[in-house]
Model the fold of this input.
Amino acid sequence: MVARILVVDDDPLIRSLLGWHLRAQGYRVDEAETADIALERLAASRFDLLITDVHLPGSSGLWLLGEVRARWADLPVILVTGELPAGDAHRAADAVLLKPFRVVDLLRHVDRVLRG
Done:
């Protein structure tokens, strides 16, 4: 079965590039530009992985991470960020990918997280 991934980033270019690289590896990818839209998509469909930027307009990626842990505790989450956020909220993620990153690093994280 092909893994289904939701990519959340407010930058359409980054969303598109992440989606393209993941699709090239055979994953099914949906995209969302805000945490609120992502939450709606997560509630409507089953996903195997969430990849979200930390800095989003409105509700942050850390807020989304908290909602995911409260509602779908077993859904793996990869946070993408330019710098580690203050505090330890990011520790609830299955992986943190620091920008700038190489595609090979993204794919390695995705593979590791999906294999459990």
Observations:
- The mean pLDDT is 94.
- The chain has one domain: 4-115.
- The first helix runs from residue 12 to 24.
